[in-house]
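2 proteins. here.
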Amino acid sequence: QVQLVESGGGLVQAGGSLRLSCTASGNIFSISARAWYRQAPGKQREWVATITSVGSTTYADSVKDRFTISRDNAKNTIYLQMNSLKPEDTAVYYCRAYGTTGPSGWGQGTQVTVSS
């Protein structure tokens, strides 16, 4: 089992930046990729970005060129650097791990609120 803990959310004005972190513990050696998702009030959870074990990254069109996913293997942590934030980026952000045992459960998430 893999456990995930997200942190780094907060309140920021439009145009500002935040960096989210997601630290994994447990059976981390089974992880082949990790992803960020978000869920805005009243909406379904949506995928934001993925990073694989070899460092390949992919992004949703809505965040491309504004968000950057990265990783620190020594810390078992991935990050989501969010720049040029917009009010529509307001959501609870979650990370998820994928590997040989299938997808992990969800962490508790971290709230990001962007004011206009």
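next one coming up
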Amino acid sequence: QVQFVESGGGLVQPGGSLRLSCAASGSISSVYILGWHRQAPGKQRELVATISQGGLANYADAVKGRFTISKDRAKSTADLQMNLLKSDDTAVYFCYFRNHYTGREFWGQGTQVTVSS
């Protein structure tokens, strides 16, 4: 099992910034993917950004150029810096972990991000 500590999120005006942090612990494989998914009301959960243990990042087209994911080299932690936020970014954001060897996926409990004036 994988446990998560998620922080960040909240209410921000359009054009503003927020930073999310995720720390994963427990059964952490040596090769993995860590990052964030999100789910807006009435929509399916979707990938936002992920990063491998080696630092390779992947972004959804909708957030490229606005969001940046980073990782602590020595720890299984990832930060998501979100800039130029839009109302479409409003969603519950879930920390995500995938074990490279088993393919098992885990999600955190989620944190609300609301972009509104």
